[in-house]
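Please fill in the sequence for the structure shown.

STRUCTURE ENCODING:
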């Protein structure tokens, strides 16, 4: 980190800076550039290439990063900066109702601290998160670049069980739900396709960057809080209406779904991408669906957990059922087989984690490994979860290069932002990280950060987060009364 202390105070404005001597991995999948140069002018990249081919103006500031590796700034395609499951607890909501902005800002700064220059928040309170997004974009606040969807359209944001509803006044519930849902709550599922179209026109006009809707619920048939995992929440006609209205506004649309049949309908409806595609539970993704994904350039979020020894052996031996004959049977889960098939077929995968911070009191209810799916544990902590997902990708057969692309280029392409960032190319925003060891030899080397650069400016990562809340010492170790 000695490089950082030498140059972190340098202003980015119109200044030319040349990062020299490193191996440059530009994110496009080609051969790394030995003894490369990345020349930055102000906020954007001016040139990338071998030292012999990139002239460096004499007025440019030279930063020698010899022996290191330069890659594009990392991204996470699916975060929750106001963290789930923390906001299922009434105490969390009551304590931070007036400071969701601070919670989101803290998480965005932790992401940037770990080299994630861009994050996409697909489920959270839209109003405060858009406010933080705008402050970061105006340069008023440090943090990863944020793109915000608000809550999952069709979901009740917070108060979903009789117990939670009984725990709070109707006025409090209304205030909280309004911050999350805008006009995209569960009532929309009762509407005609035409009405759904009109509501989504209103929704995107409120300032969200993209839309995520719940094609299915997320729960088993008994005691379902947000809808059953194998039951469609919206008809195919309603889903097509959503897609048409969101695309007409120039935005992308993605889904939450938990069955193979729901995934098929999602792809056929013209959706751009889906989170956790492989997680279809007791139903195997049809080969026809995978081929349609490839044809339509459909992107898949991962949210993969680490495999146990038995699963690792299954992957090594490619020993899977190989058919859908066991669909619906108790104890069957096609998730690992689905993931391996998607990778082998060439469906582009995205680093996506559900990551955020967590309220320390809530974390004590789960333990270090978290609850179902690792949520609430290390597998959902922003800045840690991403590297666990990378390890899980490698276990399922992805190479370090394809994992790096899943964390950079693929995400930018999926969100239609590749013209602005995602690879190291002239004209794009100067988002990059410098690491001390080769990530193509070991993808975990991405954790060995020397520098984080966002829009041409070197980030003082040691100072982040600037105003800790959930990661503060007071929150972690309160006295008799917790005050933060």
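FILLED IN BY: designer on duty
SEQUENCE:
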């Amino acid at each position: 980190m000695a490089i950082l202390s030498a140059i972190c105070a340098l202003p980015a404005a119109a200044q030319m800076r040349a990062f020299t001597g490193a191996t440059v991995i530009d994110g496009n999948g080609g051969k790394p550039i030995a003894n490369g140069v990345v020349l930055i002018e102000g906020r954007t990249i001016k040139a990338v290439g071998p030292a012999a081919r990139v002239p460096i103006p004499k007025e440019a500031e030279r930063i020698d990063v010899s022996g290191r590796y330069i890659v594009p700034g990392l991204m996470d395609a699916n975060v929750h900066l106001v963290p789930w499951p923390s906001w299922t607890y009434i105490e969390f909501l009551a304590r931070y109702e007036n400071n969701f902005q601070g919670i989101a800002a803290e998480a965005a700064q932790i992401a940037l601290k770990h080299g994630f220059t861009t994050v996409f928040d697909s489920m959270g309170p839209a109003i405060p998160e858009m406010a933080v997004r705008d402050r970061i974009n105006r340069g008023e606040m440090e943090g990863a670049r944020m793109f915000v969807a608000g809550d999952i359209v069709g979901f009740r944001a917070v108060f979903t069980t009789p117990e939670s509803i009984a725990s709070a006044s109707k006025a409090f519930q209304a205030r909280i739900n309004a911050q999350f849902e805008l006009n995209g709550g569960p009532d929309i599922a009762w509407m005609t396709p035409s009405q759904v179209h009109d509501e989504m026109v209103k929704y995107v006009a409120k300032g969200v960057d993209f839309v995520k809707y719940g094609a299915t619920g997320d729960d088993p048939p008994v005691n379902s809080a947000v809808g059953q995992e194998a039951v469609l929440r919206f008809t195919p006609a309603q889903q097509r209406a959503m897609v048409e209205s969101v695309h007409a506004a120039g935005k992308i649309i993605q889904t939450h779904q938990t069955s193979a049949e729901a995934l098929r309908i999602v792809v056929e409806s013209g959706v751009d991408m889906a989170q956790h595609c492989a997680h279809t539970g007791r139903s195997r993704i049809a080969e026809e669906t995978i081929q349609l994904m490839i044809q339509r350039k459909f992107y898949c979020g991962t949210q993969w957990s680490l495999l146990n020894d038995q699963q690792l052996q299954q992957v090594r031996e490619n020993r899977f059922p190989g058919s859908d004959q066991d669909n619906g049977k108790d104890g069957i889960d096609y998730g690992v087989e689905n993931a391996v098939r998607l990778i082998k077929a060439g469906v582009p995968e995205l680093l996506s984690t559900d990551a955020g911070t967590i309220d320390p009191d809530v974390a004590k209810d789960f333990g270090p490994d978290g609850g179902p799916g690792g949520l609430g544990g290390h597998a959902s902590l922003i800045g840690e979860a991403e590297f666990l997902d990378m390890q899980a990708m490698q276990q399922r057969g992805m190479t370090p290069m394809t994992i790096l692309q899943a964390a950079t280029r693929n995400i930018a392409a999926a969100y239609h932002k590749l013209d602005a960032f995602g690879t190291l190319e002239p004209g794009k925003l100067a988002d990059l990280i410098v690491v001390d060891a080769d990530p193509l030899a070991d993808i975990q080397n991405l954790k060995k950060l020397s520098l984080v650069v966002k829009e041409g400016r070197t980030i003082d990562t040691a100072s982040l987060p600037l105003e800790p809340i959930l990661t503060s010492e007071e929150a972690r170790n309160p006295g008799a009364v917790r005050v933060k």
